[in-house]
Amino acid sequence: MKATKSKLTNQITESDSEKLRELFVDGLKDIYWAEKHLAKALTKMSKNATSQELKAAFEQHTTETEDHSARLEEIFGMIGEKAQAKKCAAMEGLIEEANEIIESTDKGTMVRDCGLIMAAQKVEHYEIASYGTLRNIARTLGHSDVADMLQITLNQEGETDHKLTELAESYVNEEASAE
Ligand SMILES: [Fe+2]
């Protein structure tokens, strides 16, 4: 196994690593667009949430999301690239789903909160997948400082996901089922 791995590593040519860098920068542009648009969407989700706890969770993550954008801008600078956003079709669709939940549920209900948690967790899982992959590519490209920064954001996305699960399990789902 070890021999195979090192053989593959030796096969990485300069142009391969240039292509990997392109993929990496593209991934950063994608998640940068996602973070910028998510901040606005989270504000709307917070306004439309029923319970104070969920409102607060969304508010806190709005602030964190703004920090994530700023961190990405720093990362672009560290690798000598201009901070540029590239439309992320996946995040656009996930935000659209959150809007549909607001439209299809009644104001002031726990069913709405249950739906908003579902939408937000889909967003978090998309971000967790993106940041996890980007962190690994950063390491492969030898940017351990960038990988460490991506890890900070990744941790916050994970904590948010965990908190949303806790809210769902502690009272939201049960109260929604009683409505
Ligand atoms: Fe984020």
Automatic annotation (TrEMBL):
Gene3D superfamilies: 1.20.1260.10. CDD domains: YciF. Signal peptide: none annotated. PANTHER family: PROTEIN YCIF. This is Ferritin-like metal-binding protein YciE. It comes from Dyadobacter arcticus.
